[in-house]
């Protein structure tokens, strides 16, 4: 398996809606963009699925693999239309500038609930690694979600059970 997106990084969104991509994530994005040596590194930001409070980010290679899976589904089926809408239509190819920053598109700012007034002031985002992808959150939403997940996650485990036992039988 290639290097993974891991960790969480707080990043300020500046007054021009720009945010710095963490260096560790940029290295993986560089490796996952076959054209990065000829041009600026690109990745795909998916903002579909209104149930989610974050945007999901894929390397160019990771998105190509997902697109191939979607394309393998029969044309016109409800599953394919749902996946096309949420992963293809409601997404954007993003370029990283020479300083390691990106501009958050208007649709992404709307998804994250970042108002123009907040961006002119000071608003924090969180980049959260999830192995093959990473997520960008509004910091307050991430903190709330993390607290909610902690309570839910403990229901998966018996008292004193090591969470690594959840991997039993994997691989």
Automatic annotation (TrEMBL):
<dbReference type="InterPro" id="IPR007159">
    <property type="entry name" value="SpoVT-AbrB_dom"/>
</dbReference>
<feature type="domain" description="SpoVT-AbrB">
    <location>
        <begin position="91"/>
        <end position="141"/>
    </location>
</feature>
<dbReference type="InterPro" id="IPR003444">
    <property type="entry name" value="MraZ"/>
</dbReference>
<dbReference type="GO" id="GO:0003700">
    <property type="term" value="F:DNA-binding transcription factor activity"/>
</dbReference>
<keyword id="KW-0805">Transcription regulation</keyword>
<keyword id="KW-0677">Repeat</keyword>
<dbReference type="InterPro" id="IPR035642">
    <property type="entry name" value="MraZ_N"/>
</dbReference>
<dbReference type="GO" id="GO:2000143">
    <property type="term" value="P:negative regulation of DNA-templated transcription initiation"/>
</dbReference>
<comment type="subunit">
    <text>Forms oligomers.</text>
</comment>
<dbReference type="GO" id="GO:0005737">
    <property type="term" value="C:cytoplasm"/>
</dbReference>
<dbReference type="InterPro" id="IPR037914">
    <property type="entry name" value="SpoVT-AbrB_sf"/>
</dbReference>
<comment type="similarity">
    <text>Belongs to the MraZ family.</text>
</comment>
<protein>
    <recommendedName>
        <fullName>Transcriptional regulator MraZ</fullName>
    </recommendedName>
</protein>
<keyword id="KW-0238">DNA-binding</keyword>
<dbReference type="InterPro" id="IPR038619">
    <property type="entry name" value="MraZ_sf"/>
</dbReference>
<keyword id="KW-0804">Transcription</keyword>
<keyword id="KW-0963">Cytoplasm</keyword>
<dbReference type="InterPro" id="IPR035644">
    <property type="entry name" value="MraZ_C"/>
</dbReference>
<dbReference type="GO" id="GO:0009295">
    <property type="term" value="C:nucleoid"/>
</dbReference>
<dbReference type="Pfam" id="PF02381">
    <property type="entry name" value="MraZ"/>
</dbReference>
<dbReference type="InterPro" id="IPR020603">
    <property type="entry name" value="MraZ_dom"/>
</dbReference>
<dbReference type="GO" id="GO:0000976">
    <property type="term" value="F:transcription cis-regulatory region binding"/>
</dbReference>
């Amino acid at each position: 398996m290639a290097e993974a997106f891991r960790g969480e990084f707080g990043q300020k969104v500046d007054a021009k809606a720009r945010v710095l991509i963490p260096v560790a994530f940029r290295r993986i994005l560089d490796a996952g963009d076959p054209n990065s040596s000829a041009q600026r590194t690109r990745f795909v930001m998916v903002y579909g699925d209104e149930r989610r409070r974050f945007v999901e980010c894929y390397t160019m290679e990771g998105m190509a693999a997902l697109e191939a899976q979607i394309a393998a589904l029969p044309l016109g089926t409800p599953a394919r239309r749902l996946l096309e809408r949420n992963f293809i239509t409601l997404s954007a190819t993003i370029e990283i500038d020479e300083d390691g920053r990106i501009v958050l598109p208007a649709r992404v700012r709307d998804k994250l609930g970042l108002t123009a007034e907040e961006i002119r002031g000071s608003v924090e985002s969180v980049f959260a690694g999830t192995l093959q992808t990473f997520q960008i959150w509004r910091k307050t939403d991430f903190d709330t979600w993390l607290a909610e997940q902690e309570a839910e996650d403990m229901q998966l485990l018996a008292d004193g059970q090591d969470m690594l036992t959840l991997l039993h039988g994997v691989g």
